[in-house]
Amino acid sequence: MESVAKKCLQKELKKLMDEGAEGFTVKLLSEENIFEWEVGIFGPPQTLYEGGYFKLLMRFPANYPFSPPTVSFLTRMWHPNVYENGEICISILHPAGDDPHSGEPASERWNPAQSVQSVIVSVISLLNEPNTFSPANVDASVMYRKWKESKGENNDYVEYVRKIVSESQEEAARDGVKVPLTTEEYIATKRSSLNRNNVEDTDFGTGFATDDDYGYDEDDDESEGETLSETADSGNGDS
Question: Which residues are the signal sequence here (predicted)?
């Protein structure tokens, strides 16, 4: 099952590098480990997190994509749905199946059709659309609701987030990362990502592992698809 996960992740990584990504960047923490990714997301324009640069750690299980990754912020974050240790609480990261106590419909939970990109996009959307009914950080949730209910008169939440954004900008400067500040610049991050990755596949240009490092062969795509289909149909993600 681990070989299936490696091939899936290698294909997703290559796709993101070949096509670029709007609003975020990805890289492996180590060339030798396809199961740990570092993601850099940019705060969306016209939101409280605008101008921010936030690092995420994504860890993938050996039976990916049948089980979801775990995702946590490496950058300090203040948000109703982010625990103090950086772990993110969001439906798409919860295992598939019905849980009557969660209040989440099964359709919002993880399924093997999801991808790295869909998870990251969900996290970016969560920044501006927190769920205060099931908070991971109660203090942040209370502060957020006071801000919304006061129609902006109580802006403690805004000030706290601005402090977080300012700290993240300092980290971006240390990393040599240019943070988009306008909608046009934000959209252009996909093009700049694509330009950075438009290099020979032998090294991906940024220290990424190659297909051969993980035994990936495009000729395996058809047989790999059959393996995934058969496993999904069986309802058992174990090898």
Answer: none
Residues 105-136 pLDDT 10s:
666 789 999 999 999 999 999 999 999 988 99
CA dihedral for 95, 87, 154, 159, sign (positive or negative): negative
**Residue 218: pLDDT over 50:** no
Task: Confirm whether 147 is domain-assigned.
Answer: yes
Place of tokens 């694509």: 194
**CATH code: domain of residue 11:** 3.10.110.10
Sequence-separated contacts (24+) of 18-21 with Cβ below 8 Å:
18/194, 18/197, 19/194, 20/190, 20/191, 20/192, 20/193, 20/194, 20/197, 21/117, 21/120, 21/189, 21/190, 21/193
Based on the residue annotation, tell me whether 8 is a catalytic residue of this protein: no
Percent of the chain with pLDDT over 70: 75
Q: Which domain holds residue 141?
A: 2-207
- Closest to 2 measured CA to CA, from 29, 23, 24, 33: 33
141 in Cβ contact with 132 (< 8 Å): yes
CA atoms within 13 A on the CB side of 226: 4
Q: C-alpha distances in angstroms, 239 versus 34, 59, 61, 227, 231?
A: 19, 20, 13, 11, 9
Higher pLDDT pick, 201 / 168? 168
Q: Which residues, in sequence order, are CB contacts of 231 under 8 Å at separation 6+?
A: 4, 66, 237
33, β-bridge pairs:
30
